[in-house]
């Protein structure tokens, strides 16, 4: 293609955004920067856990060291990486505002002499970026179509194209790739960072695009734009069928509160929507339906609606200031003698009654004033969340009691900022989730009781200091997470020590099993005197075990020790004249080898070894003199095996299959257990209350599973067959994965299911 065929740059591309749109686009720019900053922070918050998990599963020490080094390097470089990423995003948005978007270069102008083969690492990174970008484009097709059209209008009518949209997935992912290009991380570490970026950023872009579109539409940029997929026919004149819930969207206005989607309770699915905006919208629809039916009682947890505590014929409503002031008085009341209050849970119904009392106390017409429907719904929803907390089987009672006293300040948060229900990274929501998760993991007895004192301190700070500034929750979350991090390190250290001890026992047990097999071959089909048989099966077996551990089963030392065992067994068999002469010739060397083997055990004193060897020689003489009755009288009390204490509760030998017929269900469970990951939680009902233990290690030698408690202490060891049989009998079960989800997510999903069943006419017992 010649230069004269190349079209000149469009003058539109160099013109800035029209002044009348400047403030609007700046607002979109700030919205995007804030959203991406939050999401990127989530990426780096997950890095330590992801790399630590990879390190635990590393195939060798060198790879494990790579992951641990990367953990330190990421922590050190995080400020620089975040700063550079934000600069790249900000630069792209600034270029768009100033009309400096780059033009796409024609492929024909590439200098073929300068092309080089793409490196393997670069190719892998390109694939990772391309895949995550394509997934966002497919998932957010409607929102991106609308955003492209609106940005084209802002760009003086010039279409941007998918790769030049400054808010698009390509720009967001490329900025992260450019950020990693400044680092020295190997591809293996970069791949983990890309996966986290995909999970924490790319998969959470839809709310951003929805908010950007709404902001632009509200600002007059194509407010009536309709999305029509390519090839879609115009709608026919007949009335369309009601759309499915998955095909409807919930948009976010400027205050962050979702606008309710245009569907009724009968449209809602039984299962809660996965999208948090849709979930909150569905909850609002269900609450509105209950209000329309006149239901005032039996909410989630069998508590009453706040409407039940007020007048039924009121004609006026409380102002927002009146409600806030009533909550402030209630919060000050809670702060009084708080240490005493924290000993007992805060009942939801009692708090609603107290709130109504404060509302009436500050009202000029207490008998003719009620809450607005929206405020009543928020109060009921927060109440149901705290009812869920008080009923949560995951949490220890002490933690439930402590968290229940956050009810009043969280009511204030929810009424001030509805994003508490829709934004996973809302500071108050994050703090509540973090405290609940810590309570589940570490809220037991013993030294971890200090966690409860820390939770008390956090609750006291919230009740005494929260006046509307959400930054308080961020500050407290940072302090609490630092405390939990130190606690987690202690627990992990304890668990690693338990695992190391288990691995040591496993190696010892495997070595002993190898020694037992060797002794069994020596003594097979031989009628040995009791003294010699006991010596071989106990003392000499222990000696062989230590030799395997020290030198290995292929060493000359092992081979010689096995020969010594064979010679000893041979020496107490009736021999002919030639055999007796040979025994006489090797006896001193044989006794010296036996002495050396016994000395390494540490359980024999020198006098004990001398007496034992004398008895063995006497036994040899008695057998060769054809006096077996004398040999039978020789009995030496052998020292207790030093391996017994080292092997612990697993016993001294491997559990051999006993030929017991296993049910098909047990066989299936054994297969499933063999694929479980470490860190999986089980519930054992052999105690009251049932205890939850974590699968920490599996022995390939014994096929035993080791479980630790929330403190990292080893608590139970279960052979795989026994574990499967107990699961079949219902005495052991896997903790459902949804129970490991954040508290607020579990609470809102459970509330949705209960309200949906109430609304559909089923009783709570059917949930």
UniProtKB/TrEMBL annotation:
Disordered, as annotated region: 227-258
Superkingdom of source = Bacteria
The UniProt entry, under InterPro entries, shows: DUF1631
Question: Under what name is this protein listed?
Answer: DUF1631 domain-containing protein
The organism named in the record is Pseudomonas nicosulfuronedens
């Amino acid at each position: 293609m010649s230069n004269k065929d190349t079209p000149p740059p469009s003058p539109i591309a160099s013109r800035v955004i029209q002044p009348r749109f400047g403030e609007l686009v700046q607002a979109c720019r700030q919205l995007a920067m804030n959203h991406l900053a939050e999401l990127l922070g989530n990426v780096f918050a997950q890095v330590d856990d992801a790399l630590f998990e990879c390190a635990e599963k590393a195939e060798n020490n060198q790879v494990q060291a790579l992951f641990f080094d990367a953990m330190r390097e990421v922590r050190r470089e995080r400020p620089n990486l975040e700063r550079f990423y934000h600069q790249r995003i900000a630069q792209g948005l600034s270029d768009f505002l100033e009309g400096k978007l780059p033009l796409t270069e024609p492929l024909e102008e590439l200098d073929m002499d300068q092309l080089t083969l793409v490196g393997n690492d670069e190719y892998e990174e390109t694939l990772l970026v391309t895949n995550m970008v394509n997934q966002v484009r497919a998932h957010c097709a409607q929102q991106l179509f609308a955003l492209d059209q609106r940005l084209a209008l802002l760009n003086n009518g010039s279409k941007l194209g998918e790769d030049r949209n400054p808010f698009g997935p390509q720009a967001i992912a490329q900025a992260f790739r450019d950020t990693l290009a400044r680092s020295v991380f190997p591809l293996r570490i970069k791949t983990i960072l890309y996966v986290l970026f995909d999970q924490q950023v790319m998969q959470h872009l839809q709310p951003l695009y929805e908010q950007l579109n709404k902001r632009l539409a509200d600002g007059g940029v194509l407010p009536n734009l309709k999305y029509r997929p390519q090839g879609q026919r115009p709608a026919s004149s007949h009335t369309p069928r009601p759309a499915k819930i998955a095909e409807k969207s919930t948009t976010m206005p400027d205050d962050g509160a979702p606008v309710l989607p245009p569907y009724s309770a009968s449209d809602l699915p039984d299962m809660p929507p996965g999208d948090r905006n849709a979930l909150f919208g569905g909850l609002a629809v269900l609450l509105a339906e209950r209000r329309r039916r006149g239901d005032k009682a039996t909410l989630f947890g069998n508590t009453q609606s706040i409407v039940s505590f007020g007048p039924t014929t009121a004609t006026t409503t409380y102002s927002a200031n009146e409600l806030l002031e009533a909550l402030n008085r209630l919060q000050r009341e809670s702060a009084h003698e708080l240490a005493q209050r924290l000993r007992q849970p805060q009942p939801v119904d009692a708090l609603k009654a107290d709130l109504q009392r404060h509302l009436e106390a500050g009202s000029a017409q207490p008998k003719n004033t009620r809450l607005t429907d929206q405020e009543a719904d928020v109060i009921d929803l927060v109440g149901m969340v705290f009812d869920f907390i008080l009923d949560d089987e995951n949490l220890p009672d002490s933690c439930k009691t402590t968290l229940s006293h956050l009810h009043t300040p969280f009511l204030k948060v929810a009424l001030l900022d509805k994003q508490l229900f829709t934004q996973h990274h809302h500071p108050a929501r994050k703090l509540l989730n973090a405290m609940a998760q810590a309570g589940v993991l570490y809220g037991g007895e013993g030294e971890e009781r200090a966690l409860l004192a820390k939770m008390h301190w956090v609750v006291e700070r919230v009740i005494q200091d929260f006046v509307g500034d959400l930054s308080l929750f961020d500050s407290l979350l940072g302090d609490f997470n630092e405390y939990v991090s130190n606690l987690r390190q202690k627990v992990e250290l304890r668990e690693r020590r338990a695992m190391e001890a288990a691995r040591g026992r496993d190696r010892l047990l495997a070595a002993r099993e190898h020694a037992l097999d060797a002794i069994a071959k020596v003594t097979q089909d031989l009628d040995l005197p009791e003294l010699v048989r006991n010596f071989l099966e106990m003392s000499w077996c222990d000696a062989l075990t230590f030799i395997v551990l020290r030198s290995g089963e292929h060493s000359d030392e092992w081979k010689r020790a096995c020969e010594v065992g064979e010679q000893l067994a041979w020496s107490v068999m009736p021999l002919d004249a030639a055999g007796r002469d040979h025994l006489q010739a090797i006896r001193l060397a044989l006794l010296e080898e036996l002495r050396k083997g016994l000395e390494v055990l540490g359980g024999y004193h020198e006098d004990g070894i001398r007496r034992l060897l004398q008895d063995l020689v006497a036994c040899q003489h008695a057998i060769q003199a054809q006096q077996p009755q004398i040999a039978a009288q020789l009995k030496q009390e052998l020292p207790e095996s030093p391996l017994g204490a080292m092997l612990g509760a697993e016993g001294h030998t491997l559990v051999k299959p006993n030929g017991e017929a296993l049910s098909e269900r047990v066989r299936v469970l054994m297969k499933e257990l063999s694929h479980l990951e470490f860190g999986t939680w089980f519930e054992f009902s052999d105690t009251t209350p049932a205890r939850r233990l974590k699968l920490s290690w599996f022995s390939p030698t014994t096929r035993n599973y080791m479980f630790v408690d929330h403190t990292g202490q080893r608590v139970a060891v279960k052979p795989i067959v026994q574990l499967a049989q107990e699961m079949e009998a219902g005495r052991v079960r896997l903790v459902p994965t949804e129970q490991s989800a954040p508290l607020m997510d579990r609470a809102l999903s459970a509330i949705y299911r209960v309200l949906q069943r109430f609304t559909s006419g089923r009783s709570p017992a059917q949930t």
